[in-house]
Task: inverse folding
């Protein structure tokens, strides 16, 4: 009888070891699948992040170009404005000079008469 019990116990132990080995293998496979899934998701996120950063850099460069263009336009407008804000008046001076005021500064332009031939 003890041989029979020993055989039953040995068979039970063997089946238990096989079940544990199968469970361990299953867990290893699931762990590998999970790692693969995580790596794939991390790769996707990294790709999206790289694309986002590239788009951000492109937009920042475009903004810098537009700011430079607007700065030039503003400078040109200020120059044009200073010229347009100038006034010219024909003074009743004996020399017939034309006085021009630009940005608060007065300029005198003398007129020379052409020599008669």
Result:
């Amino acid at each position: 009888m003890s041989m029979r019990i020993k055989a039953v116990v040995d068979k039970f132990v063997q089946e238990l070891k096989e079940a544990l080995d199968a469970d361990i293998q299953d867990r290893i496979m699931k762990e590998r699948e999970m790692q693969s899934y995580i790596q794939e998701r991390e790769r996707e996120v990294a790709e999206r992040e790289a694309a986002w950063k590239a788009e951000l850099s492109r937009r920042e460069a475009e903004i810098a170009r537009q700011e430079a263009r607007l700065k030039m336009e503003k400078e040109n407008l200020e120059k044009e404005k200073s010229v347009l804000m100038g006034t010219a008046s024909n003074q009743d001076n004996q020399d017939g000079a034309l006085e021009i005021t630009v940005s608060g500064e007065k300029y005198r332009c003398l007129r020379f008469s052409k020599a008669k031939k």
About this structure: The two ends are 153 Å apart (CA to CA). Residues 2-84 form the longest helix (83 residues). The chain has one helix and three strands.
